[in-house]
Amino acid sequence: MLARLLDERLIERSAAGFNILRIGAVLLAKNMRQFQDISRKAARVIVYAGESKMQTVSDVTGEKGYAVGFAGLVQHVMGKLPQNEVIEGAIRKQVKLLPEVVVRELLANALIHQDFDMGGASPVVEVFSNRVEISNPGEPIVPVERFIDGYQSRNERLADLMRRFGICEEKSSGIDRVIEAAELMQLPAPEFLTSHRRTIVVIHGPRAFRDMNGGDRVRACYQHCVLQYVLRRQMTNQSLRERFGLPEGSSNTVSQIITATLEQGLVKMDPNAPDSRRYARYIPAWA
Prior knowledge:
Elements: H1 2-7, E1 11-14, E2 17-20, H2 22-28, E3 44-48, E4 56-61, H3 66-80, E5 83-88, E6 91-96, H4 100-112, E7 124-127, E8 131-137, H5 156-164, H6 174-184, E9 191-195, E10 198-204, H7 214-230, H8 237-244, H9 251-263, E11 267-269, E12 282-284
Helix pairs in contact: 3-4, 4-6, 6-7, 7-9, 8-9
């Protein structure tokens, strides 16, 4: 066991025996507080009573390293999510605000892509009644508009070890999966934001199409277009209509959303598509 830990450079030999390296503590510590250099890097989960930060229900900072504590972190967050009551057939069911796959992928991203050089800052999960915000220290090294198709790890060794531990996939598929899940459940498009030295992802709970504002619709259109492009497809009026769960008679409404997205320079007409509005196809503006 010690030989394997040495080979993975999680520990090193010393005169007295072995030293635990920072990356070993970050991944495998039973209690990160015992390691001064990384004690503030433990994930923090804050739950609020409503849609604002006025009233805090709970504020918990984890202790375990990322590898040994990841499953527990995911379950803790899932346990704090609000539940919605839905009726399937004639049976009432309690459904979490967000699917577990979305929470899992975004938590893994926040842990892996944080800037460890920033002191006094850690990954934070904030649970509101209508959304979840997951943030990590450091501004992204990939532009937020390219999160779906682009990938570059700030911490390559950490990403490699987390992948081999089965916690993440080091192949740029995590955000794709998040967007796919949002579309499948017809949730509002996630928001990828940068603030002062932090990267933030906002995942909204269920919201009817009529309650989405123009920004929500344009963002969903762009993300749908990028996802289709990554899947080697093209966005069409029909594919976007299906993404929003709208009936066939809503083609004009969907066309207006596409036009607004075109005007913002986020998507463009596919030059290889037939020259017809009816059969128009769209690709990301950067494609």
